[in-house]
Amino acid sequence: MTATTTSARSDLSELGRSETALRTFLHGLPGVDQVGAEQRAAQLGTRSIKTTAKAQAIDLAIRMVDLTTLEGADTPGKVRALAAKALRPDPADPSCPHVGAVCVYPAMVPYVAEVLRGSAVHLASVATAFPSGQAPMEIKLADTRAAVEAGADEIDMVINRGAFLAGRYAEVYDEIAATKQACGDAHLKVILETGELATYDNVRRASWLAMLAGGDFIKTSTGKVPVAATLPVTLVMLEAVRDFRAATGRQVGVKPAGGIKTTKDAIKYLVMVNETVGPDWLDPDWFRFGASSLLNDLLMQRTKLTTGVYAGPDYFTLD
């Protein structure tokens, strides 16, 4: 790490101490060219990969899936079955890789932990009054600690969008930093809920705010609002993590979530990652898909490539 990078990291670490400094920095970030971002995302979305490269992309995408169920009707049996599927997505093919993580509500964490114990699959839990984020801070932190104590090694928190949109950036910063501390050794994914942020400039500012406060990942969405992950929004977030690493030397992951359902969708995102931030992020440690139905489509396409025959989605279980 260069002396310049060390100095930049030191300067940036001081921003959270002052609302004025934080506001000045965030509003001093370069504005996002909306037309340019959308055209760039559309252009990257037209790229096509074939044969061996496609097979490698599918396996990589499987390894990047955070297999998710976040429903009020979730049961211990349902999440145990999901965890078993995460370990062996295609029981008929032992060469099929496992997924990146299983993501559930805090109350379901102990049941998933029973199945995943000793494996390389991570256990993620949403927390901090997901999906609204509207709860007293002590409840949000208790939510986080309970999930970690039950076995979660990744926490997906939601920011207070009301505070962010009102310009109370220090309040949001402090909540993220406190949640990061409550995580202990668990990684923290910060959900921006980009569909509620209205502008790409706000997405860029929220991305930087989350990283400055200590987030290990920035995540697009809860999947509980009408507008979830999009390619242009993810492009803006990828540019933010690229620029953040250049400024501080610290690498932060990205997780688009919500609405990513097909192999074609997943490959578009992988192309964007490669073209925007490079191969350092083409790894489950640095890029994930928050999804449920995506995994079945990836498995269907994988089977088609290896056998020449499509299997129906219910062949791999319906989630």
Automatic annotation (TrEMBL):
PANTHER family linked to this entry: DEOXYRIBOSE-PHOSPHATE ALDOLASE (PTHR10889)
Assigned EC number: 4.1.2.4
Signal peptide range: none
Keywords: Lyase, Schiff base
SMART domains associated with the record: DeoC (SM01133)
Any one GO CC term of the record: cytoplasm
Any one Gene Ontology molecular-function term assigned to this protein's record: deoxyribose-phosphate aldolase activity
Catalytic activity line of the entry: 2-deoxy-D-ribose 5-phosphate = D-glyceraldehyde 3-phosphate + acetaldehyde
Protein origin, superkingdom: Bacteria
Alphabetized InterPro entries for the sequence: Aldolase_TIM, DeoC, DeoC/FbaB/LacD_aldolase
Designated name of the protein: Deoxyribose-phosphate aldolase
